[in-house]
Design brief:
The protein has about 325 residues and is of the alpha/beta class. It has 11 helices and 15 strands. The protein folds into 2 domains: about 1-120 and about 280-335, Alpha-Beta Complex (Quinone Oxidoreductase, Chain A, domain 1), CATH 3.90.180; about 135-270, NAD(P)-binding Rossmann-like Domain (Rossmann fold, 3-Layer(aba) Sandwich), CATH 3.40.50. Strands 3, 4, 5, 6, 7, 14 and 15 form a 7-stranded mixed β-sheet that branches. Strands 10-9-8-11-12-13 form a 6-stranded parallel β-sheet, sandwiched between helices. Strands 1-2 form a two-stranded antiparallel sheet. Helix 9 packs across helix 10.
Length: about 325
């Protein structure tokens, strides 16, 4: 019997429940995937808390799937049963058997484990596209917030591969992992002063998944012509839980850039949303994710995996991501 994890209502990790279900047959242009691994993402936390746009509980979280094709729907010709593939799903990934549009599938090199591949679908694609599609050519120095996390640590790998100087912000316990990836570790306390002490003229780009008031600090780190890439809002949450007072405080403290202020500073701000970019440019999604997988197969990208939980321990995995002390990606493994 197939199993899945459903967030029955909005709330903490305790709202996640395992249930048995009967998978449906794939329709035209679809495949039935036997899922093997899925990452636990901050977006899953937002979905569980009922804070994600469109997708509200009751819902099966899970932003990605990695596994082997179990059955083909009508008119599917580009893949075969048994193929090792991955896809960005947004929801539905916390399940053993998942219906996926064939057009969303990207082949996974056989040398990559399902756990490693699952650490790359959402996080690797995010890091790759922010660096390759959101930033101008000619970067030399960048700063990364959450450098010990799933997205940040892959950004460090990609930047090292390009020969960039990288300043990675993270807790002191994450500094060894940040340094091991070739970056210069910095703490978020007095972050602007810490960055300017080692890079007085600033950096070419800052990647900020914290948001809120932190984006003001990130903007202050840019040099002339620099760009701030905003890709998350973890600062609005309190250890993975909704906190209206904290959210309101961070929201009020956010900078509201005007065209005049940006024009006058020779610096820019761009937002990155993976699902909107995938919808607008599906060809970029497939090409870029395939490139990420190849970089991992070649050893250039080495995703950090914090801990692997069984699918049935999804609530424990969410407790782990809520505490904020993990380094790298948390993975759910689906048993055969």
């Amino acid at each position: 019997m197939a199993q899945r994890v459903i967030a029955q209502r909005a709330g903490g990790p305790e709202v996640l429940r395992v249930e048995n279900y009967e998978p449906s047959a794939p329709g035209p242009g679809e495949v039935l995937l036997r899922n093997q691994a899925v990452g636990v993402a901050f977006a899953d936390v937002l979905i569980r808390e009922g804070l994600y746009p469109v997708h509200k509980p009751p819902v099966v979280p899970g932003y990605e799937v990695v596994g082997r094709i179990k059955a083909l729907g009508p008119d599917v010709t580009d893949v075969e049963v048994g193929d090792y593939v991955a896809a960005l799903t947004v929801i539905g990934g916390y399940a053993s058997d998942v219906i996926v549009p064939a057009a969303d599938l990207v082949r996974v090199p056989e040398t990559l484990s399902p756990e490693s591949a699952a650490a790359l679908v959402l996080n690797g694609l995010t890091a790759y596209q922010m660096l390759e599609r959101c930033c101008p050519a000619g970067l030399s120095r960048i700063a990364v917030f959450g450098a010990g996390g799933g997205v940040g640590s892959i950004l460090l790998d990609l930047a090292r591969h390009r020969g960039l100087t990288v300043y990675g912000f993270g807790g002191r316990d994450k500094h060894p992992a940040i340094a091991a990836k070739g970056a210069i570790p910095l703490e978020r306390i007095d972050s602007v002063q810490a960055l300017r002490a080692v890079a007085p003229s600033g950096v070419d780009a800052v990647f900020d998944g914290v948001g809120g008031r932190n984006s003001r600090r990130s903007f202050a780190m840019l040099n002339e012509g620099g760009i701030l890439v905003l890709f998350g809002a973890q600062g609005l949450m309190d250890h993975g839980r909704r906190n209206l007072f904290r959210a309101a405080s961070e929201f009020v403290a956010m900078p509201w850039w005007s065209s005049f202020s940006i024009f006058g500073s020779n610096r820019g701000v761009i937002g990155y949303n993976i699902t909107r970019l995938k919808s607008a440019h599906p060809e970029h999604y497939r090409v870029d994710l395939a490139a990420v997988f190849q970089l991992a197969a070649d050893g250039v990208v080495q995703p950090l995996i914090d801990r692997v939980f069984d699918l049935t321990d999804a609530s424990a995995a969410h407790t782990r991501i809520n505490d904020g002390n993990h380094t790298g990606k948390i993975i759910l493994r689906i048993k055969a």
